[in-house]
Amino acid sequence: MTAADLSELIRRKRSYLCVGLDTDIRKLPAHLLTEPDPVFAFNRAIIDATAEYAVAYKPNIAFYEAMGPRGWESLQKTLDYIPNDCFTIADAKRGDIGNTSGLYARTFFDPSAAGLNFDAVTVAPYMGHDSVMPFLDYPGKWVILLALTSNSGSADFQRQPVGEQELFEVVMETAQTWATPDQLMFVVGATQADQLSRIREIAPHHFLLVPGVGAQGGSLAEVSRVGLNAGSGLLVNASRSILYASNGIDFAHRAAEEARILQQEMATYL
Fold it and tell me: Which among 44, 90, 151, 240 could bridge 121 via Cys, Cβ 3.0 to 4.6 Å?
């Protein structure tokens, strides 16, 4: 999927909502625990409930790895179930020396290997270009590079001064020499909205994946005001506020309501 394709999908659905499938088996509604695969049963219901409002889905790989082989099976079935017109992100935060990164890229991008065929994977940039380039060897696939994250510890390194800049700014400027806006996005936490204007100056044409709206308290209005560009240029992720809007038998209905509220607000900003 190219940037133009993603922009068109956003225009068509009047939404830039990404639903994070951070599915914790310990938080599932009790009635699903008798299912042969409770995690997939939950994800399937969430996807059915939100597909009208979402343009992307982002399974956080840690939640599936924590369950061992069963988790990988749930992840595979979930990815296969996501509608073909939706953008899919493996939130894996990988990044290692070149040959190892090549294997990580194969895991998520080559369906003849692990059986997975995501559109994008999140990548940590701090081992440099040779840890990122293997992910860029797959035509039509995306690297979503961690730039300025929403966690409290992000300032430990990302905000450190490097000359007259901060480290995250150097990362973003350098990474743009590795790939075009058709293959490279940046992760920017919604709780870092005060930095979005600067980020848009550094990367005016790139898509930004913005987590932290909803349960983490980020402002959709502020993110949208500063982050939207001529090609839309935003994917705003919501996870817990949608997934766990209810832990009862009405969980899917409540998830749909939460997704619809976000989509309707997004439509006004578009």
Answer: 90
Q: Which of 13, 58, 77, 93 is catalytic?
A: 93
Distance (Å, whole) CA 118 – CA 105: 10
* Amino acid occupying residue 136: L
Q: Which residues contact 11 (CB under 8 A, 6 or more apart)?
A: 232, 270
pLDDT digits (tens, 9 = 90+) for 37-61: 999 999 999 999 999 999 999 999 9
- C-alpha distance from residue 1 to each of 163, 166, 175 (Å): 37, 32, 20
Please state, in angstroms and rounded to a whole number, the distance separating the CA atoms of residues 243 and 254. 9
Strands (E), the chain: 17-21, 56-59, 87-94, 120-123, 142-148, 161-162, 165-166, 184-188, 207-210, 234-238
**27 noted as active-site residue:** no
| C-alpha span between 183 and 206 (Å, rounded) | 9
State pLDDT tens for residues 136-149. 999 999 999 999 98
**DSSP assignment, residue 121?**
E
Whether this model's pTM surpasses 0.85 = yes
Rounded to 5°, angle at Cα 56 from 54 and 59 = 120
